[in-house]
Amino acid sequence: MTKFPKGFLWGGATAANQLEGGYDRDGKGISVADVMPGGKIRFQVLGSEDFDWSLDQDKYIYPNHRGIEHYDRFKEDIALFAEMGFKCYRFSIAWTRIFPKGDETTPNEAGLKFYDALIDECLKHDIEPVVTISHYEMPLHLAKEYGGWKNRQLIEFYERFAKVVLERYQSKVKYWMTFNEINSAFHFPALSQGMVKSTGGGDFKNIVQAWHNQFVASSKAVKIGHELNPDLQIGCMIIYATTYSIDANPVNQLATMKQNQEFNFFCTDVQVRGEYPAFTDRMLGERGVAFSDLEITDEDLALIKEHTVDYIGFSYYMSSAVTVTEEDADEVAGNLLGGVRNPFLEASAWGWQIDPEGLRLALNELYNRYQTPLFIVENGLGAIDEVKEDGTIEDDYRIDYLRRHIEAMADAVADGVDLMGYTPWGCIDLVSASTGEMSKRYGFIYVDLDDEGNGTLDRSKKKSFDWYKEVIATNGEQL
Predict the structure, then answer these.
(1) Which residues contact 292 (CB under 8 A, 6 or more apart)?
(2) Which residues constitute the catalytic centre (predicted)?
């Protein structure tokens, strides 16, 4: 018996706004990602009261504008993925390449032709495309003029976008996801909902209304896809952070249960089960919102119920520990969800606590709750890589991180979990979403570019490149 099933989808993951560059080429419009400044102050700026989505190139740098120039070098990059043996490649379609402002009725053919070429290049190398329809790259016009996803009009705009790309690529792309890390809005709605404090992002009612509008839009995409081709697999995508109580105090256990329900399960309950969970009224009420306050129709609820997703895609980087009884507990960072320091875990250079066993728990918790196939579409270690004088990069720390997480995946499969595939994040170095840095590297492939935009952009293989190649070649047997 092998650790992983035959046909397991080994690969890697990226996002258009973090690697493509060419932010204003061939008719592309400006996205919310294009006005996010680079550097550790990125979230501080986006979270301020007066940020209004303005571009200020005199004050900030914008590394997403250039990315790693994948727009021009995608053939070179995909050839490297093929050399590693990728079975699949998860990428996103930039909404602003297809509808530059988001509310047009006619798509931009030049943008579609770029993804024609990208998808064909994948297929040429026998790499299965896995497409995220919307990955933190809403058209800026929709954020500024419509107020982001709290505005119900965005359902129509997203439906048009989804219909265009699904119709165009349904014969070539089997695996899709509707929104990236949809639950991230619980803590930071700027990325996935296009809402900042100056446009209502600080009001929980707006966040929940935006979620509902996204749930409706997602179900419309599922409906369109399944009507085009019943074999299409269309999933949701969330951040998952396994959550522990810091101790056995029942008060902390209850706080942990609530965080699990609200962050890890709320969005998936709606998108997988097709209905709002029983704890919805309590969750809203504790934040001064009533379900009846929201703009929700019977037709919406029927659509959500009928057109649920086929699988759950999720990112897993770290776990979270919870306490409400220790006021002086050390706080730690995480993927939009922090927590308190877990004394049993080590942390990355960015403070994210490393917990492979937490991935096994995550897989079991999700599968036992939903009995729906799972797909780990992001996982990895952001680290500073040193290039030696001979050009080699000995990233054993990354190999160790990934090995331990793949071992946890194998254990979960042995537990009975239906796991479709694994696409580590940032398989090639790209611009960090949280900080806009290049120095926070995840890739198997090094890109010669620093945080100030200096470098040749030459690609080179890290030690982890050949290691992962062997993992794929042996279907996870050789770690």
Answers:
(1) none
(2) 378 (nucleophile)
